[in-house]
Design brief:
46% of the residues lie in helices and 12% in strands. The chain is of the alpha+beta class. It has 2 domains: 95 residues, Phosphorylase Kinase, domain 1; 209 residues, Alpha-Beta Complex (Aminoglycoside 3'-phosphotransferase, Chain: A, domain 2), CATH 3.90.1200.
């Protein structure tokens, strides 16, 4: 089926002028579609191997974006088109309006960093009253750090590729970090933190900014919507923003922006903002360690390098 036929099936009329593969992103095939009259769309082929329940993922996205448009019409959010049968997927293809904006990863611009914090806090704030139980569990236990560690230790026991001895020091460090890294999942189980709607992949590359003012435009990439504690989103966002070194000025800018909009936070949640960065850093380090032991089958390359960078970063966090 041609791109022209696909977009027509989603009720989009007019003549297509051009398409271009977008190489950012590693999971879905993404194309920028331009029409003769100037309209622009994002066409994606969902990778059903990585996203194993695409229909439920799309239903989660539609529920959340419909809710946001109804209750916060002034805020830009993703808009996906539907077929005449009311489906948001056609042979795993989907199409949405292109939102104008830029993404900035690992930026040192403190205005942009503060805007990112504000945008993510606003995203959480707007969804505080969303009925969490309506979301499908599309990524069960994704941020269950206890289970991540359990899976790692099983991989160490199996040691199929005889790599465990090569990261003995890193494994010892992870063993020492296990309990403090599980503060979020343990706190959620003990009902210390409320169950809320999460973005699930709150990297700074998933926020569109105005290229001139650096004001936030829209939060994007909602495939990983899930329920849990917002602290996992916060910690992951800060971790992705920092790169391999902790910068206090950048952290303060992000925190300042987030707290300006995230008015829902409980005192417990506020207390665990910085610890959440450590927790999410170690959770990702555990995933890289397991992947290295399994011969890099998931991340494909640089697992050992990333593992060591994350452990070094975690060491910096302990001193904060």
């Amino acid at each position: 089926m041609s791109f022209g036929n696909i977009i027509q099936n989603f009720g989009i009329s007019g003549k297509m002028k051009s398409y271009r593969l977008i190489t950012k992103g590693h999971i879905n095939q993404t194309y920028l579609i331009k029409m003769e009259d100037g309209r622009a769309y994002i066409l994606q082929r969902v990778n059903s191997h990585a996203l194993q329940c695409p229909e439920q993922i799309m239903q989660n996205i539609v529920k959340v974006t419909d809710y946001l448009r109804k209750h916060y019409p002034h805020v830009q959010t993703l808009h996906f088109y539907q077929t005449e049968n009311g489906k948001s997927l056609l042979d795993n293809w989907r199409i949405m309006d292109k939102i104008q904006g830029v993404t900035l990863a690992n930026t040192d611009n403190l205005k942009a960093v503060e805007s990112m914090g504000y945008a993510f806090g606003e995203f959480h704030q707007m969804l505080t009253d969303f009925p969490v139980s309506e979301l499908y569990h599309t990524f069960p236990e994704f941020h269950n750090t206890r289970k991540r560690f359990s899976s790692l230790w099983k991989a160490v026991e199996r040691n199929h590729f005889s790599r465990a001895s090569l990261i003995a020091d890193e494994l010892q460090q992870l063993h020492e970090y296990e309990n403090p890294a599980c503060l979020l999942v343990d706190g959620l189980e003990m009902k210390k933190f409320p169950m809320r709607v999460l973005h699930g992949d709150m990297k700074c590359s998933n926020i569109l900014l105005n290229p001139n003012s650096f004001e936030p435009v829209a939060v994007i990439d909602l495939d990983t919507l899930m329920m849990g504690t917002v602290l996992t989103d916060y910690g992951d966002a800060v971790r992705s923003l920092m790169g391999t070194e902790f910068h206090i000025e950048k952290y303060q800018a992000f925190e300042r922006g987030y707290l300006q909009s995230a008015l829902f936070l409980t005192e417990n949640e506020k207390e665990y903002l910085i610890p959440s960065v450590f927790c999410m850093t170690i959770e990702l380090a555990v995933r890289y360690a397991e992947d290295y032991l399994n011969n890099d089958i998931y991340f494909h390359a640089d697992s050992l390098k990333r593992l060591r960078e994350l452990l070094s970063f975690a060491g910096e966090l302990i001193a904060v």
